[in-house]
């Protein structure tokens, strides 16, 4: 597979053990040329940050499937800044809140937390990968 | 104490119990004498084990939702809504994911923030934090039997508290609440921790209190071949029976091919009963639970109702004792109480229409039952061999060696070398057997079934089939075929 030179940290945040989508995101992003650092399920914020610092990653994609996304993601952007990850590209997606809520409200809530892009349930990873190429200037 | 497949002595149990009850302050609320009295006085219509036996005798299928929110009053309101508006036969309390990882401080934060926000920020009911007193408020405010449903590798204290509070059924097991739910917890530890939970249930049973236990059938809910999930159910059934559990509900997650679904449930019940008889557990009463489709759902609610109805039909025709119900919000996460009630109503309607009907025997059904049993026996024999006759030790070794292997599981103690895919009629087969100890005959059967699909679709047998199958139901089909096929 031809590499595109960009590194992405992926993982499932908090006490969430949904593994299937994580394995598929890994598979698809690699197929599309990204270097993937997969920290897997049940990952605290610190693990995302440490992995990004250690590998000098270009982006972090946070997955959350179980509803606690709102609690788990609070403060992630600030901690990235503290760790020296200035303006790192930060995405979140999955079933990120409890229950069916108005999407625009949810998106706003997560953008206010510092996420660059926020994805609805059921978004194919290919779409996210397309945005990633745009945002990292390789599209 | 080394892991062994044998009943814990009362001394071993009581010694560990002292330590368990000190894990969080609500553990101190438990008073054994008082709990026994409380459970003895619980009316029959709130006893899970008794309601299941009654359903089994009457040959009907009961409907049970999943549900749980952070705060006690809202949780009670939710459960009564599902009973009165949805028509649920049995009630759950689905436990939040922080509790499942034993993060009780984070539960406290979730409870506080939920009060502040006026909506539940937790994805379930933090029963351990609410304690015996809080959980009893729930037991006393509802009119149906209650079960705790979770996904907790170490559920010792949670089980103590909620059982003492009057929850008469508990889902989980040393394999089924580890491999799909944890990343780095060893099987030795979870099997021991679930021996404790089973011993707790056995201990109450010895005090004359009938409680139900339910191993979690669907595992990762992602294309698990029936023989693999049935082996796990049978092993957990035997582990529970050894600790004195008498009322066991074995689980199965819908695969989607009706013949295979019916065959799997029948094979599971028959083989579990055979193994129990062989090992001398003659007082064990086995019932079954059928989980409606556990994989990805279509977002369109009308389509989701189609998936729910299909699962309800398969559960009824398989003769399952109960069915766990999905909701039209499945694709987007946790449902509102209204959506949850709609799922139950849809299910109950189908169950009522099919009452008294079973799928008739046919060559295809009998062949599938025989195939599942053959594969199960092959795996069970190897587990026993690896453990020198000890099924607990054998289970740990079997996972180490990939002899038991669950597809798409998060656990580092699972080999992840086996891969499944659907055959041309949608039955789930072994695409890669990895280190499974299958005979050439079994391997050839699975390969031939997948070759038929590959020929039909004009492509090679491969991992892309599994990936396509994972997304297929969400996109509106059972089998993930290439476009135009």
From TrEMBL, chain A:
Binding residue positions for adenosylcob(III)alamin: 15-19, 63-65, 95-99
Enzyme class: isomerase
Residue intervals of the B12-binding domain: 5-139
A GO cellular component entry from the record: cytosol
Coiled-coil boundaries: none
Keyword match Isomerase: yes
One GO biological process term: L-glutamate catabolic process via L-citramalate
Name of one Pfam family that matches: B12-binding
Description of how the protein assembles with itself and partners: Heterotetramer composed of 2 epsilon subunits (GlmE) and 2 sigma subunits (GlmS). GlmE exists as a homodimer and GlmS as a monomer.
Protein name: Glutamate mutase sigma subunit
UniProtKB/TrEMBL annotation, chain B:
Pathway: Amino-acid degradation; L-glutamate degradation via mesaconate pathway; acetate and pyruvate from L-glutamate: step 1/4
Record SUPFAM superfamilies: Cobalamin (vitamin B12)-dependent enzymes (SSF51703)
UniProt: L-glutamate binding residues: 66, 100, 149-150, 171, 177, 181
GO BP terms: anaerobic L-glutamate catabolic process; L-glutamate catabolic process via L-citramalate
MF-aspect GO terms: cobalamin binding; methylaspartate mutase activity
EC number(s) recorded for this UniProt protein: 5.4.99.1
Keyword Isomerase assigned: yes
Binding site for adenosylcob(III)alamin: 68, 123, 180, 297, 326, 330, 334
Keywords annotated in UniProt: Cobalamin, Cobalt, Isomerase
Subunit details: Heterotetramer composed of 2 epsilon subunits (GlmE) and 2 sigma subunits (GlmS). GlmE exists as a homodimer and GlmS as a monomer.
UniProt similarity note: Belongs to the methylaspartate mutase GlmE subunit family.
NCBIfam families, A to Z: MthylAspMut_E
Protein name: Glutamate mutase epsilon subunit
Origin species: Propionigenium maris DSM 9537
Gene: glmE
